[in-house]
Write a structure and sequence with these properties.
Number of strands: 2
Largest sheet: 2 strands, antiparallel
Structural class: mainly alpha
Strand order of the largest sheet: 1-2
Order of helices and strands: HEEHHHHHH
Number of helices: 7
Mean pLDDT: 83
Low-confidence stretches: none
Strand content: under 5%
Length: 145
Protein backbone atom coordinates (compact mmCIF):
# COMPACT_ATOMS: atom_id res chain seq x y z
CA UNK A 1 0.00 0.00 0.00
CA UNK A 2 1.16 3.50 -0.78
CA UNK A 3 2.32 5.85 1.94
CA UNK A 4 0.27 8.64 0.38
CA UNK A 5 -2.73 9.55 2.51
CA UNK A 6 -5.43 11.49 0.71
CA UNK A 7 -7.00 14.54 2.29
CA UNK A 8 -10.77 14.71 2.63
CA UNK A 9 -10.96 17.28 -0.18
CA UNK A 10 -8.92 15.01 -2.49
CA UNK A 11 -11.17 12.05 -1.63
CA UNK A 12 -14.23 14.17 -2.36
CA UNK A 13 -12.80 15.36 -5.69
CA UNK A 14 -11.70 11.88 -6.83
CA UNK A 15 -14.91 10.17 -5.69
CA UNK A 16 -16.86 12.15 -8.31
CA UNK A 17 -14.82 10.57 -11.11
CA UNK A 18 -16.69 7.88 -13.07
CA UNK A 19 -13.54 5.72 -13.36
CA UNK A 20 -13.16 5.40 -9.57
CA UNK A 21 -15.36 2.80 -7.91
CA UNK A 22 -14.38 3.59 -4.31
CA UNK A 23 -11.86 5.77 -2.51
CA UNK A 24 -10.78 6.15 1.09
CA UNK A 25 -8.00 8.19 2.63
CA UNK A 26 -5.61 5.28 2.04
CA UNK A 27 -6.82 3.34 -1.01
CA UNK A 28 -8.43 3.74 -4.41
CA UNK A 29 -10.50 1.10 -6.19
CA UNK A 30 -10.79 1.72 -9.92
CA UNK A 31 -13.55 0.40 -12.18
CA UNK A 32 -12.78 -2.68 -14.27
CA UNK A 33 -13.44 -0.60 -17.41
CA UNK A 34 -10.72 1.86 -16.41
CA UNK A 35 -8.23 -0.94 -15.79
CA UNK A 36 -8.87 -2.43 -19.23
CA UNK A 37 -8.76 1.02 -20.84
CA UNK A 38 -5.36 1.71 -19.29
CA UNK A 39 -3.95 -1.65 -20.37
CA UNK A 40 -5.24 -1.31 -23.93
CA UNK A 41 -4.07 2.28 -24.37
CA UNK A 42 -0.63 1.59 -22.92
CA UNK A 43 -0.17 -1.51 -25.10
CA UNK A 44 3.03 -1.36 -27.18
CA UNK A 45 3.94 1.92 -25.44
CA UNK A 46 1.28 3.94 -27.30
CA UNK A 47 0.71 6.04 -24.16
CA UNK A 48 2.10 6.34 -20.67
CA UNK A 49 -0.15 5.34 -17.76
CA UNK A 50 0.16 8.88 -16.37
CA UNK A 51 -1.36 10.25 -19.61
CA UNK A 52 -4.31 7.83 -19.41
CA UNK A 53 -4.97 8.90 -15.83
CA UNK A 54 -4.84 12.56 -16.87
CA UNK A 55 -7.18 12.00 -19.86
CA UNK A 56 -9.69 10.26 -17.59
CA UNK A 57 -9.73 13.19 -15.18
CA UNK A 58 -7.71 11.52 -12.44
CA UNK A 59 -4.99 13.92 -11.29
CA UNK A 60 -1.67 12.03 -11.36
CA UNK A 61 -0.17 14.48 -8.88
CA UNK A 62 -2.82 13.52 -6.30
CA UNK A 63 -2.62 9.77 -6.96
CA UNK A 64 1.18 9.70 -7.12
CA UNK A 65 3.63 8.46 -9.74
CA UNK A 66 4.63 5.37 -7.79
CA UNK A 67 1.03 4.24 -7.32
CA UNK A 68 0.26 4.79 -11.01
CA UNK A 69 3.34 2.82 -12.04
CA UNK A 70 2.52 -0.03 -9.64
CA UNK A 71 -1.12 -0.45 -10.62
CA UNK A 72 -0.33 -0.22 -14.33
CA UNK A 73 2.32 -2.93 -13.96
CA UNK A 74 -0.03 -5.13 -11.92
CA UNK A 75 -2.92 -4.76 -14.38
CA UNK A 76 -0.74 -5.38 -17.45
CA UNK A 77 0.73 -8.50 -15.86
CA UNK A 78 -2.69 -9.76 -14.80
CA UNK A 79 -4.14 -9.13 -18.26
CA UNK A 80 -1.20 -10.86 -19.95
CA UNK A 81 -1.33 -13.92 -17.67
CA UNK A 82 -5.09 -14.37 -17.26
CA UNK A 83 -6.67 -12.41 -20.08
CA UNK A 84 -8.84 -10.59 -17.55
CA UNK A 85 -8.28 -8.05 -14.82
CA UNK A 86 -9.91 -8.71 -11.48
CA UNK A 87 -9.68 -7.07 -8.10
CA UNK A 88 -7.55 -9.42 -6.05
CA UNK A 89 -8.82 -7.93 -2.81
CA UNK A 90 -12.43 -9.04 -3.31
CA UNK A 91 -13.48 -11.52 -0.66
CA UNK A 92 -9.94 -12.45 0.29
CA UNK A 93 -9.24 -10.05 3.12
CA UNK A 94 -9.40 -12.84 5.67
CA UNK A 95 -11.57 -10.81 7.99
CA UNK A 96 -14.34 -12.69 9.78
CA UNK A 97 -17.91 -11.79 8.93
CA UNK A 98 -19.54 -9.40 11.35
CA UNK A 99 -23.00 -10.72 10.56
CA UNK A 100 -24.66 -14.07 10.99
CA UNK A 101 -24.84 -16.27 7.88
CA UNK A 102 -28.27 -17.15 6.53
CA UNK A 103 -29.32 -20.80 6.31
CA UNK A 104 -28.87 -20.71 2.54
CA UNK A 105 -25.33 -19.30 2.88
CA UNK A 106 -24.47 -21.92 5.50
CA UNK A 107 -25.73 -24.68 3.19
CA UNK A 108 -23.75 -23.34 0.21
CA UNK A 109 -20.61 -23.08 2.34
CA UNK A 110 -21.07 -26.66 3.62
CA UNK A 111 -21.65 -27.98 0.08
CA UNK A 112 -18.49 -26.26 -1.15
CA UNK A 113 -16.52 -27.77 1.73
CA UNK A 114 -17.90 -31.24 0.92
CA UNK A 115 -16.84 -30.88 -2.73
CA UNK A 116 -13.35 -29.82 -1.66
CA UNK A 117 -13.02 -32.75 0.73
CA UNK A 118 -14.26 -35.20 -1.93
CA UNK A 119 -11.67 -33.88 -4.38
CA UNK A 120 -8.95 -34.20 -1.75
CA UNK A 121 -10.01 -37.81 -1.05
CA UNK A 122 -9.85 -38.66 -4.76
CA UNK A 123 -6.39 -37.17 -4.99
CA UNK A 124 -5.21 -39.13 -1.96
CA UNK A 125 -6.62 -42.37 -3.42
CA UNK A 126 -4.81 -41.79 -6.71
CA UNK A 127 -1.60 -40.94 -4.88
CA UNK A 128 -1.86 -44.12 -2.82
CA UNK A 129 -2.36 -46.21 -5.98
CA UNK A 130 0.71 -44.60 -7.55
CA UNK A 131 2.78 -45.38 -4.47
CA UNK A 132 1.65 -49.02 -4.56
CA UNK A 133 2.69 -49.19 -8.19
CA UNK A 134 -0.79 -49.87 -9.47
CA UNK A 135 -0.87 -46.74 -11.60
CA UNK A 136 2.07 -45.81 -13.75
CA UNK A 137 0.50 -44.12 -16.75
CA UNK A 138 -0.61 -40.48 -16.22
CA UNK A 139 -3.53 -40.96 -18.61
CA UNK A 140 -4.95 -43.68 -16.40
CA UNK A 141 -4.83 -41.28 -13.45
CA UNK A 142 -6.95 -38.65 -15.18
CA UNK A 143 -9.52 -41.27 -16.29
CA UNK A 144 -9.95 -42.66 -12.79
CA UNK A 145 -12.99 -41.56 -10.77
Amino acid sequence: MSKIVFTDSQVKKLSKNKWIKNITNKAITYTDEFKIKLVKECENFKKFPRDVFKECGIDPDIVGECRIHNVAYKWRTQYKNRGIITDTRKGSSGRPLERELTDKEKLEKAEAKIKLLEAENELLKKNEMIEKGLLIDIKSISNLK
